Amino acid sequence: MSLIESEHFVDVTTPSLEVPEPQPALPTAPARKTTVVGYDINRPPAQRRRVSSVRPNDVLQLVGAAIGALAFTVILFQFVAPFDGPIGFVLIAYVVFIAMYSLVVFQDEDVTTVRDRLVQVVVTSLATVLLGALLYVVSYIMIKGFEALLHTNFYTEDMSDTGPLDPLTQGGIIHAIAGTFIMITIALIIVIPLGIATAVFLNELPNRFSRFVRIVVEAMTALPSIIAGLFIYASLILLLGFDKSGLAAALAISVMMLPIIIRAADVVIRLVPGNLKEASYALGSSQLRTVWHITLPTARSGLMTAIILGTARGIGETSPVLLTAGFTASLNLNPTSGPMISLPLAAFNFIKNDAPNQQARGFATATVLLALVLILFVIARMIGGRGPGVLSNRQRRRAAAQSRRDATRFQNHTGSTHRAVSTPSPSVTSPDGHPEGGTTS
Amino acid sequence: MTQVLTDRVAPAGEPDFGQPRPRPDAEIAQGRISVTDRIFRGTLRASGIFVLIIMSMVGLFLTFRALEALKVAGVSFLTTAEWDPDAGAGHFGIAAVLLGTVLVALVAIFFAFPLSLGTALYISEYAPIRIKRTLTSLVDLMAAVPSIVFGIWGFYLLQYQVLGVSRWLTTYMGWFPPFRVDSFDPDDPLSTTTVFTSSTFIAGIVVALMVTPIATSIMREVFTQAPPGEREGAYALGATKWGMIRSVVLPFGRGGIIGGTMLGLGRALGETIAVYLILSPLFEIQPHILQNGGSTVSALIALRYGEATNFGGSALFAAGLSLFILTLIINFAAGAVVARSRSGAGAEA
Questions:
Q1: Helix orientation angle between B310-343 and B200-224, rounded to the nearest 10 degrees
Q2: From CA A306, how far away is CA A266, in angstroms rounded?
């Protein structure tokens, strides 16, 4: 307010002292030379300016080129060419479309713009192809698996009394569902503490050794999963003489998941703001308390995401289980003895069979597996996706409430000590003027 | 346990500043760190060492078990194509399977590279801001889809749709040796397309879908880190969007493009189940990617481990060792390239 007044004052005073009219409409001398164009009564009403980046002409060019390409390809396929198959049709239509589109754009624009548009179209279609393929794969598996999923026995029975030719009203995959849950539980019990401790190690004790560990872990993230299975097969089964069992499969999955989770957790923990940790150390807390109360809670959502995505990978792997779990058609809840089967392995075995019902079961098993992975993924996205230290609304309310409670507690506490110790000496007073509570308690 | 720790008071005159300190070990030696922290650090270090031991044991066990077969086979292990370990030296080797592995991975990368580059550019540059996060999630979801699902899809659906493309390729491009198909005569109208089933080409396409998400997420990450100042500068000089991408985003993200592709290649080399389902096993050197039959190291292991004798098992471990070494080399190289590109970003990650 005061700023505007002073500007007004500076601008206007000089002319207004000379000219008796105190009109603010004449701010500076050159402004008087401005010719004001009179309002043209015949002018059409003002059009609202388009701020959208999409022009109708662009859309028409795209649609026109697409229709032209489609028509051309149909003629090519109907009358001229030795081509067949839907993939061939799409490929040729696409090439024709690109050519036609560049010609159409070239009518209006220069070469640079044509190039720009072409790249935009190609990049967009590549992304569409990838996401379309994802949709295609998922929907194909789900549609083919739908038939067997309708029978409740599919979720409650195992395959011990069911042959390949028996109808879908018999038999189920409870043994594979149970097996997957047992294996992944054991694997998580091993991997979560070990993985997070190692990730903390990489961040909290940075030296040459931990850098070496990080390099090895990063190289092992892309370890072929069959190698993890082969390792457990060589050590546990061949060397130590254990039988193939759920435990062996769980260990193989752990070896595969461990580098993935360490790496993801390492990245998340690295992003914890240093000033939070320094504040904790400044309050005199030890390294353990800082990690336990500051670093890990701050990175919690990211760590959960890392674990859940690692779990999704672990559930879906077939080859380590193939080598280490053996094969069974009946329910086995004991991971330490007897063969156990997991969902991907069950799907694999069903699919290899030629009987149509067995294949339907294979598709249904793959659908169950896919649904499980999807659910895990959605949970991970709901928990995670926030940066370290960024809270949800509920968390923020909870933190604020806790902070208020702490404030009253401190107030009561310092109030009582104030009476006990007559006056705090200036040397222990913080810059805010609050006496330091830690030394008195 | 935490209850006990709350009572700990730093010794007078020696404030416990904790981390970050330049040399933790020296401080421990001087006794400037409390007992709990010493135990804590010991635990962390122990878990680090344990992980390192597990990871190196993977390599050691493979080598240990492979030695028996390697000693017998000698150099012939690298040059022999057939796989019959019980027939003795000279009858088993990784020439065919290693070539098959590399061919499947190359076909996969041929498709995965443009797909992931395009998708990463679309997400980071072209996509409307509203759907950017959804697209990123979808790509991550695709990375989590189990390989058996892709394998089943490729085996039952894709395979028969690709046959026409394979026939066209061999008919018109058959002069290029990898596209040649024995026993297929394009002039014979009755010739069957079954020679094109279960080929390296189809397996490679399916593997491409599995490695694309990994390559995409690395490339996208690097592209979004391209400095906004230089982007604006390019626009201010009158560049079109493509001009900006070509002069700022792509040069800046070169390390991410190379590294992401190589990490994808590493994954493609190790893929087992999809290849096992699709490729019909054949243990001879087969460079014709459109033709039925082929083999990869991981599919060989999955196929033969059950019936292997003691010596045969050792031979399989030798094959696994070769795959392990190959992927490790590629991963190390990819990691180095990506890390160097990140350090150039000037952004402290």
A1: 30
A2: 10
Q: Give 3-state DSSP helix, strand, coil % of chain B, rounded to 5.
A: 70, 0, 25
DSSP B278-289: HSPB--S----T
Structural domain contains residue B324: yes
Give me the residues paired with residue A435 across strands: A429
Whether the CB of A268 is below 8 Å from some CB of chain B: the reply is no
Q: For B217-234, what is the HEC assignment?
A: HHHHHHHHCCCHHHHHHH
Q: Does residue B70 fall inside a structural domain?
A: no
Contacts of B135 in chain A (CB under 8 A): 127, 131
Q: Is pLDDT above 80 for A81?
A: no
Q: What are phi and psi of A227, to 5 degrees?
A: -70, -40
Does A249 touch chain B if contact means CB atoms closer than 8 Å? no
Higher pLDDT, residue A441 or A152: A152
Q: Could you tell me which of B61, B232, B102 has the C-alpha nearest to residue A234? A: B61
User: What pLDDT was estimated at residue A14?
Assistant: 44
b/e sequence A167-180, b meaning 16+ C-beta within 10 Å: ebeebbbbbbbbbb
Whole-number Å distance between alpha carbons of A158 and A315? 19
B234 vs B218, more confident: B234
In the DSSP assignment, the letter for residue A76 is I
Which among A141, A212, A287 is the top mutation candidate for probing chain B, defined by the most B β-carbons within 10 Å of its own β-carbon?
A: A287
Reply yes or no on whether the pLDDT at A20 is more than 60.
no
pLDDT at A417 over 80: no
What CA–CA distance (Å, rounded) separates A285 from A276?
12
Instruction: State the nearest Cα–Cα gap between B80 and chain A, in angstroms.
Output: 22
Quick check: bond before A30 cis, omega within 30? no
Find the closest chain A residue to B267 by CA distance: A222
On whether residue B220 sits in a domain, the answer given is yes
- The reply to whether A96 touches chain B by the CB within 8 Å rule is no
C-alpha atoms less than 13 angstroms from C-alpha of A88 in its C-beta half-sphere: 18
Q: In B, which residues are within 8 Å of A113 by CB distance?
A: 240
The pair of three-digit structure tokens given for residue B22, joined into one six-digit string:
């330049």
- Return the pLDDT at B11: 47
Tens digits of residue pLDDT in B25-56: 555 555 567 888 889 999 999 999 999 999 88
- The pLDDT value recorded for residue B311 is 85
Q: List residues bridging with B294 in a β-sheet.
A: B281
pLDDT of A330:
82
B57 and chain A in contact, CB less than 8 A:
yes
Does residue B264 or residue B24 have the better pLDDT? B264
Provide the pLDDT for residue A416. 62
* pLDDT above 60: residue B123: yes
Distance (Å, rounded) from C-alpha B168 to C-alpha B187?
12
User: Which of A324-338, A390-404, A415-429, B129-143 has the highest mean predicted lDDT (pLDDT)?
Assistant: B129-143
Alpha carbon A361 to its chain's center: 31
Name the residue range of residue B269's domain. Answer: 85-343
Domain of B203: which CATH number?
1.10.3720.10
Domain boundaries, chain A: 56-146, 174-390
Pick the CATH number of A174-390 from 1.10.1060.10, 1.10.287.80, 3.30.565.10, 1.10.3720.10: 1.10.3720.10
Q: What is the mean pLDDT of residues A84-107?
A: 86
Domain membership of residue B62 (yes or no) is no
How would DSSP label each residue in B29-55? Answer: HTT-S-HHHHHHHHHHHHHHHHHHHHH
Listing DSSP states for A341-376 in one string gives: --HHHHHHHHHHS--HHHHHHHHHHHHHHHHHHHHH
Band (pLDDT 50/70/90 cuts) for residue A42 is: confident
Q: Does the pLDDT value for residue B345 go beyond 50?
A: no
Identify the closest residue of chain A to B336 by CA–CA distance.
A215
User: How many domains does one find in chain B?
Assistant: 1
Q: How confident is the model at residue A194 (pLDDT cuts 50, 70, 90)?
A: very high
